[in-house]
Amino acid sequence: MDVLVFIVSGTLAAATALIFAAMGELVAEKSGVLNLGIEGMMATGAAMGFVAVSLSGSYTVGFVAAAVLGCLLSLVHAVLTLVFRADQTASGLAIGILGLGLSSAIGKSYEGRTVAGLPELNLGPLSDIPVIGEMFFQQDIMVYLSIALIFATWYVLTRTKLGLVIRAIGESPENAHALGLKVRLIRAGCVGFGGAMAGIGGAYMSTAYTPLWAEGMIAGRGWIVVALTVFGTWIVPRVAFGAYLFGSMSLLELSIQAFGWNIPSQAMSVLPYVVTIIMLAVISRNLAFIRLNSPASLGAVLKIS
To answer: Which residue spans traverse the membrane (predicted)?
Structure first.
């Protein structure tokens, strides 16, 4: 039972950074813009968030600073692709590399330092419920905000006029422009939102999940976010499922150690990435379903004047 509690509660925390970044990337891709710079934006957010928390002592300041810097990086990508019509893949990769370098520069003097860590949210009697309370009601506030973000993203994209506009632009920016929609402005807003969420996800890694700064701590999670969005077929619940699957797999090494099984640590380190990609590939094997949900203009150069 203790192992079960550890896995469930740990999965919620481990998936939180991915949820923030994945929901942001999902919105950006729904508008038709592919952002491959998520890894760099998460790394920059992690460094900026850690430094801001260290200097101010405020986690709110840390997350806001990370969101702003992530947003600014993503807006560079938006300008390159929407104004100068640069290739989205090349621009995203360049911004990602820039973000990794920027994170190294920002956090260089803080290497190896720690912060107190984001405290658990006090939910009163709910936290004292046996087993259930330990699993679900002894988490920090960002875990609950990430869950709220899943529902908010789903609702906006599927039930609101704004979501309809975003999806219409992602399907055919030319037709949307002909109808009078501000395609560049809306796409830039979606990309900026995606960058901000990636920054927050990175800041969560460095100030809450593992409250320290170490270069390379994002460890490929930005690429997992991109994979989750595609293999999740741009559907919010599927993308969220992939994030929680990766979170649970990342805890597998500690769980196996609790049972006393002797498995090489290198194999356990790579397992979350392998299992997550395999599982998402299985659930998205219907190519017709993928094409049905894929934004038609995703990755294409904007042709409107």
So the answer is: 6-24, 36-55, 61-84, 91-110, 141-157, 185-206, 218-236, 243-264, 270-288
Question: What is the Rg, in whole angstroms, of the alpha carbon atoms belonging to the chain?
Answer: 19
Which neighbouring-strand residues pair with 212? 114
Distance, in Å, from the CA atom of 205 to the CA atom of 33, rounded to the nearest integer, reads 25
Q: Is residue 302 part of a domain?
A: no
Q: Look up the domain containing 270 and give its range.
A: 2-117+128-293
Q: How far, in Å, CA of 239 to CA of 19, rounded? A: 8
User: Distance (Å, rounded) from C-alpha 59 to C-alpha 61?
Assistant: 5
Minimal CA–CA distance to 88: which of 180, 173, 153? Answer: 173
Q: In degrees to the nearest 10, what's the CA dihedral of 168, 18, 99, 265?
A: -140
- Three-state DSSP class for 116? coil
pLDDT higher than threshold 80 for residue 255: no
Q: Report how far residue 76's alpha carbon sits from residue 91's, in angstroms, rounded to the nearest whole number.
A: 9
78 closest CA partner among 63, 91, 93: 91
Structure tokens at 62: 């840390």
Pairwise CA distance, residues 63 & 50, whole Å: 9
pLDDT in tens, 27-64: 999 999 999 999 999 999 999 999 999 999 999 999 99
Query: What is the rounded distance in angstroms from the CA atom of residue 152 to the CA atom of residue 166?
Result: 15
- Gap between the Cα atoms of 80 and 237, Å rounded: 31
Of 299, 29, 8, nearest to 138 by C-alpha is 8
Q: Residue 253 above 90 pLDDT?
A: no
Position 229 scores a pLDDT of: 93
In a domain, 225, yes or no: yes
List the CATH number of the domain containing 101.
Answer: 1.10.3470
Distances (CA, A) of 65 to 22, 42, 53, 197: 19, 12, 9, 12
